[in-house]
Amino acid sequence: MSWTWFHKLGSPKWFFHWSKSLALPLFGFGCICLLFGLVWGVAFAPEDYQQGNSFRIIYIHVPAAILAQSCYLALGLSGLVFLVWQMKIAPIFIKAVAPVGAVMALMALVSGAIWGKPTWGTWWVWDARLTSVLVLFLLYMGIIALQNSLNDVTLANKAVAVISVVGLINLPIIKYSVEWWNTLHQGATFTLTEKPAMPAEMWVPLLISTIGLYCLVAGLALWRMQTEILIREHRSNWVKQEVMKDGL
Amino acid sequence: MQSSAFLTISDLWIERGERDLCKRLSFDVFSGDVLRILGENGAGKSSLLKVISGAISPLEGKVFYGGQEVTNDRHSLQESILYLGHSAGVKKVLTVEENLRWYCPSVSSSELHSALEALGLLSLLDSSVNTLSAGQIRRVALSRLWLSKQKLWLLDEPFSSLDAEGVGILEKRIMQHTASGGAVILTTHQDLLSLHSRDISLSL
Amino acid sequence: MTYLSFIKTEFLVLWRRKQDVFNALLFFIIVVVLFPLGVNPSSDFLAPAADGIIWCATVLAILMAIEGMFKEDYTDGSLEQLVISGLSLSLLMLLKTTAQWLAVLLPLLLMMPLLAEMLYLPDGSFWVLIVTLVIGTPSLFLIGSIGAALTVSLKQGAMLVMLLMLPFYLPVIIFATSAVRAAQLGLPYLGLLAMLLAVFLLSLVIAPFMTAIAIKASTN
Amino acid sequence: MAFDNLTDFFEMGRHGVYVWSVYGFSTVSLALITWSTLSKRHQIQETLRKRFLRDKTI
């Protein structure tokens, strides 16, 4: 089997050309999908018999939480790819996606806290899931802080890849320990997990908005990566042609 | 060709941050060689030495040692390299003797004494490096050249902060080393007084 | 350079720099003292919180100690010499971390009986606390060395190391304090000690490699 | 539609404040990250274009 596609994918130039026409459609499709899912969820899905209308927060909370975790998974994997194969596109991906992931984690945290008020009666409960999203957010902030403090590009690439990989290995342990700690401390509280099985009118919009958010984030990530590629490769000829040719 | 040269650099290309250095640089090092690397500030002289020593990886290019490619596994090469960088790697809180014992744990004390005597450091044997001057610290770092058996020396600005006497002593030592089959690659802005060197120029 | 001469020199440097270790311990004591003074000095509050206070103070003191772990080696050029020494950089880093760990942990353990008394730590749990410190702190040092190596080239890296490393320290803190608490309640705690041990072994496998990668990237 | 009229829709059985603040916060966050992404992209392109034009005229 030929591995050229793999190395080609790793070359910023090839990636730039390939992704140029993809970002806007992805982003647009994501927006429409998300909007559709949210409107369905917020206006047409039936009311939850236990939580009333506050459960409609789920259509933001769950997709954001899923995206926050998926983004971290992707960061960790691309960190690994960079450490093993020195693929040039990997650190660009990490730099581009980390802030988006942090926003997703923040959205999950804020929506979780607001959801907590009508459900639990307080803004914050040391619930296992909320706590691990908080930790995830801190991990993102750590990566961003490290990226911003190191001026040397080569060093920053390696450093961020290392910390992403270590985070990827540690995240399951952190999650497990927090869940374990939570059962010791809390006893039985309300958890977001123990909902009655949802009818289709409830979960289909959730699925749609999750897919929408995925596409939206992918579009954003491609745009951010293209920007980063332009910055890093600004001396090369193809960037010159690309920039002079049209407004992209 | 590769059989006689014990170190071969081919098609080297180093990337440092924004700049490309040493694009398509190739050269051989034979035993008995003194190789002087010339170039302006920022031309990549130090980077070249670091690439040979394996501290940084080149973007492209290959390094052969003893006929074998060692670009990715420098282990065998590093065993026969002595590298002295800008910062000498001398620990300030330790004494002169402790510093040398760190790098060369197996030398006898008579060897240690004669090396330090050659550099005029014998009276400072057990004084803390904290109390020494810059030139003396440089001499402490250089005394490793008398103590270790490595064949290839990579010296980054070895003459900096040395006085005329020190330069003379060091040049003599380099001559001894090459006469006994070793090789030296060095960077310097000074003219070599008594050494004959092959020069390699790096351009920006 | 050999592994033996390296580790000898490490201990020698630590001995000459004993004030640094001493400062970290002093910091530890001050953090511990802050709790009775700042929150509540009664044994009702302190006794159940003692293990948590001791562990939090330990984590902070270790972060203080570990941040400067490679700083001097970096500025005087010996880190570069380690990278090109032909020895395994991961193993060198493991040795260095071990030396640092011993230098901080041993005096810390010596202070424990006193602190346990001052914080009214319940009788039955003292030895469990000691065991959690012995098998928990190596993970902190191993993981922390990655952070110290990543930020070695920065002048003001202390805050960044804290931000980077504290999330990774959470499992250790949780398992350790839970074990002590379980011992106080008479519940089985061996499983928690096993978890601590597992985290330690995992860090032992991964951290030296990551530290070596970070050191190599930092020195160029 | 799960609601009888618009007032019900906005009030959501006294949970409206929570639901709408979540949606508001999320919209603002997504808008901000999109805006910063696109403006950075645009800014870099303009900088590079100016630099290339300058290089050409020299």
Automatic annotation (TrEMBL), chain A:
Position of the signal peptide: none
InterPro entries linked to this entry: Cyt_c_assembly, Cyt_c_biogenesis_CcmC, Cyt_c_biogenesis_CcsA/CcmC
Keywords, sorted A to Z: Cell inner membrane, Cell membrane, Cytochrome c-type biogenesis, Membrane, Transmembrane, Transmembrane helix, Transport
Membrane topology: Multi-pass membrane protein
Segments crossing the lipid bilayer: 21-45, 57-85, 92-116, 128-147, 159-178, 202-223
GO MF annotation, one: heme transmembrane transporter activity
Subcellular location(s) per record: Cell inner membrane; Membrane
Domain called Cytochrome c assembly protein: residue spans: 14-185
Keyword Ion transport: no
Lineage: superkingdom: Bacteria
One Gene Ontology CC term in the entry: plasma membrane
Keyword Transmembrane: yes
A biological process from GO: cytochrome complex assembly
Function noted in UniProt: Required for the export of heme to the periplasm for the biogenesis of c-type cytochromes.
Family indicated by similarity: Belongs to the CcmC/CycZ/HelC family.
The name this protein goes by in its record: Heme exporter protein C
Gene name of the encoded protein: ccmC
TrEMBL record, chain B:
Keyword hit for Translocase: yes
Keywords assigned: ATP-binding, Cytochrome c-type biogenesis, Membrane, Nucleotide-binding, Translocase, Transport
Pfam families referenced in this protein's UniProt entry, alphabetically: ABC_tran
Signal sequence, renumbered to the chain: none
Superkingdom of origin: Bacteria
A single MF term (Gene Ontology): ATP hydrolysis activity
ABC transporter domain sequence ranges: 7-204
One BP annotation, GO: cytochrome complex assembly
Designated name of the protein: Transcriptional regulator
Organism: Marinomonas ushuaiensis DSM 15871
UniProtKB/TrEMBL annotation, chain C:
Family designation: Belongs to the CcmB/CycW/HelB family.
GO CC terms, sorted: plasma membrane
Chief location: membrane
Protein purpose: Required for the export of heme to the periplasm for the biogenesis of c-type cytochromes.
GO biological process: cytochrome c biosynthetic process; cytochrome complex assembly
Matching NCBIfam families: ccmB
One function term, GO molecular function aspect: heme transmembrane transporter activity
Name this protein carries in UniProt: Heme exporter protein B
UniProt superkingdom: Bacteria
Compartment(s) of residence: Cell inner membrane
Entry membrane topology: Multi-pass membrane protein
Keywords for the protein's UniProt record, in alphabetical order: Cell inner membrane, Cell membrane, Cytochrome c-type biogenesis, Membrane, Transmembrane, Transmembrane helix, Transport
Residue spans crossing the bilayer: 21-39, 45-66, 78-95, 127-152, 158-180, 192-215
TrEMBL record, chain D:
Keyword annotations from UniProtKB, A to Z: Cell inner membrane, Cell membrane, Cytochrome c-type biogenesis, Membrane, Transmembrane, Transmembrane helix, Transport
Biological process per Gene Ontology, one example term: cytochrome c biosynthetic process
TM segment ranges: 20-38
Intracellular or extracellular location(s): Cell inner membrane
Major site of localization recorded for this protein: membrane
Gene Ontology cellular component list: plasma membrane
InterPro entries per UniProt: Haem_export_protD_CcmD, Heme_exporter_D
Membrane topology classification: Single-pass membrane protein
Family: Belongs to the CcmD/CycX/HelD family.
Function of the molecule: Required for the export of heme to the periplasm for the biogenesis of c-type cytochromes.
Full protein name: Heme exporter protein D
Species in which this protein is naturally found: Marinomonas ushuaiensis DSM 15871
